[in-house]
Amino acid sequence: MSYEMLIFSGNSNRPLAEEICAHLGTTLGQARLKQFSDGEISVKLEDNVRGRDVFLIQPISAPANDHLVECLLMIDAIRRASASRITVVIPYYGYGRQDRKSEPRVPISARVVADLLEAMLPDRVLCMDLHADQIQGFFRIPVDHLYAAPVFVDYLLKKGMKDPVVVSPDSGGVERARFLARQINAGLAIIDKRRPQANVSEVMHVIGEVAGKTCILYDDMIDTAGTITKAAEALKNSGATSVLACATHAVLSGPAVERLQNSILDEVILSNSIQLPDSKKIDKLTVRSVAQLCSEAIRRIHNEESVSSLFL
Questions:
Q1: Per-residue pLDDT tens for 80-120?
Q2: Is the pTM of this model over 0.90?
Q3: Which end of the chain is more exposed for a tag (fewer CB within 10 A), N or C?
Q4: Catalytic residue among 44, 101, 158, 193, which?
């Protein structure tokens, strides 16, 4: 592009934004973010953005409402300051699980968030491992969708596992699991699960051959860890020699950390799409950075190059 790149970050995950800037050989743009005593968010950009190609990095992680509003206000500030182009980088798309009408009289919240973001008039959105691919269609502006799988592939191949099997914890994640299985030359299995209510899951049985295998449970996120720990128990009961869990988004709410620590999982591999506080960094947790992947996507967008070719 003929205009310069400038990267801003909200408060959601500044360490990731700083790491992305380091890979790009630039520094993070300066912005003053604060809250008034009544909880209102105040935003002021300290750098000149006129005519710049601006990227705003802001996962919509907990507290999701605060970080969403912060993102909306920053987009508006950037647009009103006459940026040439605005790309919103959302490594974790909050409200993404509410992507359809699963029962009567409920909103499609993932679409509401898309509408809110679009109302601020950004030029494009860059996301990572959306809970459902259909969320891309909720936007009327271009959406680039990244996959964290290459980050996990490198790590898993170096482990030299014997007889690996990638396991999807539910039927909805089969395509995601199949992609990872192809990359590491592993088998594929599925957990048949029934969920009686939100954040409560009941594992029924395992579909596929896992006896004597090293199983890798692969999902887009770990929230309360109920699904992943029960799936691990089902795999062990079916004869798996060891079980690892691998997920992009470390939501880790409620009893998640305690459940993972006390589970039979040998290792939990997560990305840094969501910033993890020290209190949640347990012994069996391994964090892989997606900064290089995000920085390469940002560089390609800035230079008008293909992003999808990253995953061919």
A1: 999 999 999 999 999 999 999 989 999 999 999 999 999 99
A2: yes
A3: C
A4: 193
